[in-house]
Design a protein that fits this description.
The protein is of the alpha+beta class. Bound molecules: guanosine-5'-triphosphate (GTP) and manganese (II) ion.
Length: 623
């Protein structure tokens, strides 16, 4: 070990931790830990390997420190984030951009020197009196072409415990990479803690990505979306790496859809936060590979994909026995589960929309809570936060797909793009091909904002490929990479657009939450060319008789023609208005590919012709 780091490390690490770190002969890694010690000034440092003992230690520490509290059911714990630290903080999340680098003006950024000074200033001495944990993980399966090694430093045992559940262990992988400098570094400190163990200085909350150095800084926050460095923070680094290396890093679930005769066809789907990735991947009857992040690579003419993660950090609101029976069952059964920001009474968890009566008093993210309580701004405090979550391991799920950890990934039959769209797109349609799908579905995604990010809800927002929050390269380049990705493929995945959130004139959703299971079955049949479709100006629509048969077969539901017509009526004016909005977005994107404008123009022409012939609202039976 380089003597410069050795003295710093020996001073803070006990013999066991020092031996574990020294066994990884990696200068860059030693420098990272030594620098973090000098900067954050922890009282002690614990280096963890992949052993059960170290995992148990972290879990135990989280309970001892009060970051998590045990609940009645064996293995269940509750963690609370600060009242004002309940979601991803987009405004305080920025790229550090060196003077000689240009980043798209649409991306939130700060000069590297200025940003480093600021965030390192907040991190200085931040771990005084506390223990620092040094952890190793792997994004994607280990020992795979998809693997990315990560070193995480944090002073939050809750963050460490969450990562143990959400990511594959990576200490052994670091042994394999030896002295290679190619890994992500993630440094987090919860900062000064208030009496209730939550980050006290959320005004100084910062999440900065040092993209030139593949390093992430996060401080004065605990909410996992801001602190679990391997999640969205690493996604941003992975998007840059993928751009350099010719693959795709996506905000997508991956699942196996089970077709006739035991056939399994894999789909990946990109929906913005709180728009249905987890609930789709956990649909009854199908199998889950992942629910949030996927890497896609071309292998032998096919698209193969892996789950970046090995667990689920899912939204708990509205998870109930009817709508999400598989998840609900896991949350009601003993086993390792971290609940966050829900209501607890006598060791029992309660949340909004769970389908059971919620007690009128208990402990929640605001502290001691009673029904009707209001916060400092006079807003009602709900029993559980709308963005409250649960953390579970995929290995604990009965519906885990058998290829979920396959280092070769799964072959993709289809890609799905969908957002929260109350008035424009039909519930499900297939694109005319890869480019049409990438442009009119992926690159035209809009979604109404939700509680998963701070700020107003219900505002229609452009969200290219659902990846807009995490893009770390110019928009045009990212779009071109997606367009080019199909070049050279022998099996081009079909591209679909879904909309689970379409509403009728009464403002009510037109579909039930499990209708998506039928759209999945339809897509599966389309991949194998086993059902026909209706040619509409915006894409290929399912036929009534096919959906009716699928609803009967899989849900024992009598799907009526009236429902079909209401759901699949083409809203021509709304679709035209959307094209105008999207065109305006791309007119403002530097170097937007010309094919975007051509594809939009062609779609507009088809819609206008239909409007002239049949009016503003056209039944699928009239197409
Ligand atoms: P992140 O984990 O934040 O990335 O979100 P996600 O995309 O995994 O969303 P999730 O599946 O957790 O769903 C988010 C919210 O959308 C929940 O409140 C669900 O109840 C709701 N939701 C999911 N699917 C449907 C649906 O088909 N219809 C309606 N109306 N709501 C849905
Ligand atoms: Mn999710």
């Amino acid at each position: 070990m380089n003597p410069q780091y050795e003295s710093i490390l020996k001073d803070k690490l006990d013999a066991d931790s020092f031996a574990k770190l020294a066994a990884l002969a990696n200068d860059k890694l030693h420098a990272f830990v030594a620098d973090a010690i000098e900067l954050c000034e922890p009282e002690s440092v614990k280096v963890c390997d992949d052993s059960d003992a170290d995992r148990d230690y972290i879990r135990q520490r989280s309970i001892e420190l009060g970051e998590e509290t045990t609940l009645t059911a064996e293995g269940h714990t509750i963690h609370f984030d600060g009242y004002n630290d309940q979601a991803r903080d987009k405004a305080a999340t920025k790229y550090l951009v060196p003077a000689d680098m240009e980043l798209d003006k649409k991306l939130n950024q700060i000069g590297r020197d200025e940003g480093l000074t600021e965030v390192r200033g907040f991190l200085a001495g931040s771990m005084a009196g506390r223990q620092m944990y040094v952890r190793f993980y792997c994004l994607g399966p280990t020992d795979s072409v998809f693997s990315i090694s990560c070193a995480q430093i944090t002073d939050s045992a809750y963050v460490g415990h969450s990562e143990d559940m959400l990511y594959r262990a990576g200490y052994e992988q670091f042994k394999r990479i030896g002295g290679e400098p190619d890994f992500f570094r993630l440094l987090h400190s919860a900062g000064r803690l208030a009496d209730n163990n939550t980050s006290a200085d959320v005004d100084k909350r910062r999440v900065y990505m040092d993209i030139a150095e593949e390093m992430v800084y996060s401080t004065n926050t605990q909410y996992a979306g801001n602190t679990v460095g391997l999640k969205k923070l690493s996604l941003r680094l992975a998007i840059r790496k993928a751009d350099r290396e010719g693959w795709l890093a996506e905000h997508m679930f991956v699942m196996g859809v089970h077709g006739p005769a035991d056939r399994v066809t894999y789909f990946a789907g990109a929906f913005p936060s709180a728009c249905g990735k987890t609930s789709t991947a956990m649909v009854p009857g199908e199998t889950i590979v992942g629910d949030d992040l996927a890497y896609l690579r071309q292998v032998d003419g096919q698209v193969r994909t892996v789950n970046v993660e090995s667990g689920i950090f899912g939204i708990i609101r509205d998870v109930n026995a009817n709508d999400d029976p598989v998840i609900f069952d896991v949350l009601k059964t003993p086993g390792e589960v971290i609940f966050s920001n829900i209501l607890i009474t006598d060791g029992v968890p309660h949340w909004l929309g769970m389908g059971e009566d919620i007690p009128a008093a208990g402990m929640n993210h605001s502290g001691e809570w009673t029904d009707g309580a209001t916060d400092a701004k006079g807003n009602e405090i709900t029993a559980s936060h709308k963005n409250a979550r649960y953390t579970i391991r995929i290995s604990a799920l009965a519906n885990r797909d058998e290829l979920a950890d396959d280092p070769a990934g799964v072959p993709l039959g289809g890609l799905i793009y969908g957002g929260r769209d109350s008035d424009t797109c039909v519930p499900i349609q297939q694109s005319f091909g890869w480019v049409h799908g990438m442009i009119t579905m992926g690159a035209s995604l809009e979604s109404e904002t939700t509680a998963a990010t701070l700020g107003a809800e219900g505002v229609r927002t452009f969200n290219m490929m659902s990846n807009m929050d995490f893009l770390a390269i110019p928009l045009a380049k990212y779009l071109q990479n997606n367009l080019d990705f199909a070049n050279g493929l022998t099996d081009v995945p079909l591209v679909f657009g879904t909309n689970y959130f379409l509403k009728g004139s009464d403002g009510k959703f037109l579909n039930g939450k499990l209708d998506k299971s039928i759209w999945l079955k339809w897509m599966e049949l389309r991949v194998h060319g086993e059902v026909d479709a209706i040619d509409a100006p915006t894409g290929l629509l399912p036929k009534f008789e096919d959906l009716k048969a699928l609803f009967k077969q899989y849900r024992d539901q009598d799907y009526t023609e009236a429902e079909y017509v209401q759901q699949f009526t083409l809203r021509v004016g709304e679709n035209l208005a959307k094209l105008d909005r999207i065109e305006a977005v791309y007119q403002d994107v530097a170097d937007a590919p010309q094919v975007v404008f051509e594809t939009i123009a062609a779609q507009r022409e088809r819609l206008t012709a239909l409007q002239a012939a049949k009016g503003d609202y056209v039944s699928p039976l009239d197409l």
